[in-house]
Amino acid sequence: MPTWTPEQMASIHKMLNPRSIAIVGATPRMQYGGRFLAASLKAKDRVNVYPVNPRYPEIMGAKCYPTISDLPEAPDLVGIVVPYDQVLDTLKESHRKGAGSAIVISAGFSERDLDDRRSLQQELGVFARESGMRVCGPNCLGVANVRDNIWASSSSRGSDGLSGPIGLICQSGASAFGPFLTRAVEEGIGLSHIISTGNEADLDFADFARYLLDDDYVKVIAGFVEGFKDARKFMEVARLAAERNKPIVLIKIGRSDLGSRAARSHTASLTGSDALYDFAFAQHGVIRVQDYDELLEVSQLLAHSPRPAKRGLAVVSHSGGVSSLTADMCGQAGLDLPALTQKAQDGINNVLKGFGWAANPSDVTGFANSESFPEIMSNLINEPEVGTLVVASAGADSQADQVIAQRDSSSKAVAFLWTGTRGSNAGLPKLKAANIPLFYTPDKLAKGLRSLLDYHDWKEGRQSVGFATAPAITAAQRTAPERLLKAGRSALSERESKELIAAWGVPVTREQPAAAADAAVAAANRLGYPVALKIDSADILHKTESGGIRLGLRDAAQVRSAFGEVMSSAKAYAPQAVINGVLVQEMVSGGVEVIVGVSYDPQLGPVLLFGTGGVMVEVYGDVAMRLCPIMRSEALEMISQVKGAKLLQGFRGKPKADVGALAETLVKVSHLAVHLEGKLGELDINPLMVLPEGQGVKAVDALALVKG
User: Fold this and answer.
1) Which of 195, 509, 540, 670 could pair with 629 as two cysteines, CB 3.0-4.6 Å apart?
2) pTM for this one?
3) What confidence tens digit (pLDDT) does each residue in 608-666 have?
4) Is the peptide bond before 530 cis (omega within 30 degrees of 0)?
5) Is residue 56 classed as helix, strand or coil in its secondary structure?
6) Distance of alpha carbon 342 from its chain centroid, rounded?
7) CATH tag for 306-465 (out of 3.40.50.261, 2.60.120.10, 3.40.220.10, 3.40.50.40)
8) CATH 3.40.50.261 fits 6-301, yes or no
C-alpha cells in the first residue's frame, strides 16, 4: 500500500505556497523562462522572486543572480528552464543551496521516446526522492495557487483565475492553462489550484491529489489524466478521498485505440485497459467525464451542492419544449421526476391562473420572469420526493436573484440550465457570482445530476461498509500453490486447477483420474452415470478443439469407447503433449452457466471478471469487472450489472439460481487473486454452474496459467 511521508507533503506545500521563488533560465524575452518570471513577479509583494541567469544583472526590475548558489536565501521553489542536459546539475545545485522543491519546465525527456532521455528522466526522479527536494515535471507548465494568487508557471495566462474550491490537476500543461483555465474564467468557476504534472519523473497526479485532500478549502479534485504512472496509488488516493468526502472528477484518455496511442506518444504513459478503468473508477467513487466543459460543470455542481435527500428532481421552465426536452434527457439518464402532489399543483395553478402547465416538468410561461416565480419554485422544491430543483430559463437579474434566494433558503440542491446566450450580461453573471451550478445543454445537466446522486449514494454505502481487505492466507492455501505453481510450468491441468481453487473454498465437480479404459469404467461406476470424460493434460488447454471431451456417457460401453476416442484425438492434436489419461467427471445439470476469471493488469493489479455463459460473453462482452479483493455487496453489484444475469432469476419458468452462493464464490476467488499475485498468471473457471437456490455452485472446468 502506498504511503505519503510528512516530508513529501512539506515539499509539495512549499511548491504550492512558496515564500520565495528562483527561476533558473529567466530571460527578458517572453519565452518559457521570461513568462515564468513575469508570472511569479505578480506576487512580488508577498513572495521573494529571484531570476537566475549569468548574462543579466537585472530582469523585469528584479536583481538577477549568476547561480543559485549566489542567492541570499534558500528558495522554497526553484523553477528550472534550461536545456534538458543541464537539468540534473541544476537540481543538485538547488539541493545544495537548501531549496525546498522544484518545477522542471524543460522538455526533451521520456516524451522523446529515446532510451538515453528515458534514463535521464529516471535519474531526475531518483535524485528527487533520495534528496527529499521533490520535483514537478519535467515537460510541464508549472503550477498556480489561484487562491493566494501565486502563479509559478510558464503559461502566457496569468492571474486571471477565479478562486474557488476545485483543485485542478492535469498531466498536460497546455490543457491546464489553456482550455480548462479559459473555460473556468468564462463560466465563473473558481479553482483553488492549477497543477500541471508533465512527465511525472517524481511527483505524479496521485501525490498532488493526496496533498489537496488535506486542504480544507478544496472540496473537489478535478483531473485530466493521459496515463497513470502508478494506478494503484491513485486508487488508494480515491479511497482516502471517500473518507474525506472529496469527490474526484476525471477525464482519462484511452477510450479508443487512437486516444491510447496519443497518450503514449505524448507522455510515455500507460493507459491500461479502458473498460477496466471504467469499472475501477466506479468501484472507487471516481466520476469519469468526457470533455473540458463536463469536467468543470460537474465539479462545480459537486462543490456547491448539498447531498440531495431524495433522488427526485423538479424541473421548471418558461418553455414547454425546454422543460420537456430536459425531462426527457433526465429520464434517459435514469433520473426520476416524481408527479406533483395535489397541494403543489394547486399552489402553482394559483399563480398560473389557467396558463402553463402545473406538473413535473412545469411550463410556467412568462411567470418564470415575474414576482410570482419564487412561489412556483417553493411549491416544487418543497415536494417530499424532490431533492433537487432545476430551473431551465434565461431571465434577467431579477430572476437570478430569485433563484439565488431560493437556493440560500433551502437545504436542497438547485441547478440552472441556461437557455440563452453564453455572453449575456443579464442574469447569467449573477448566477455565476453566486456559484449556482450552471449547465448549457440538457444532456450534460442530466449526466451531471446523475453523477451527483450516484456519488453520494456510493459514498454513503462505502462509509457504512468500507473497502474490502483479503483475509490472511491459510496454511492449506499456501501449500497448494507452492506445489502446483512451480517455475517452468505454463499451465495447470484441469484437475490441478480445480485443486487450486478448492483450497479457497470453491466447490468443484466430483471426478477421478483414469489412465486406462478399465480404470475409467470403474471410476464411472463409482461416480454414477451419466458422466463426462475429459483429457487430462496440462499441455492441452482447449479440450473441445482437441476432441478431448465426451459428455453424457450413460453406461460402461460408452465410457470404454469414449476413452479410446478421446486419447486418440488428443494425441493426434498434440503429439508432443504429456497426457496423464482422462478425468471421469460427474455431469452437472439444472444450473446456469457463468464464467469467473482472474487476470492481472500491469497497472491496477488483480482483477476479477464475471459473466454469464454463451454468446452474451463471446459476442457482446457482457461482463463485469472489479479490482480485488471485493466484498459481498460488490459481488452482488457485479452480478446485477451483467445483462445475462436475468437467467439467474428464474427465467421462463426455471428455478431461481443460488445467487448468494455465487456472490460468496466471487468473494473467495477475489481473495485467491490477491493471495496468488506474482505466482498466478490467469484463472478461468468456465463454466461455473450456479445451481437452484439452496444448492450452491460447482466449478465444472477450470484453467490456471502460471506467471511467466
Assistant:
1) 670
2) 0.92
3) 999 987 656 666 778 899 999 999 999 999 999 998 888 899 877 789 999 999 999 99
4) yes
5) coil
6) 43
7) 3.40.50.261
8) yes
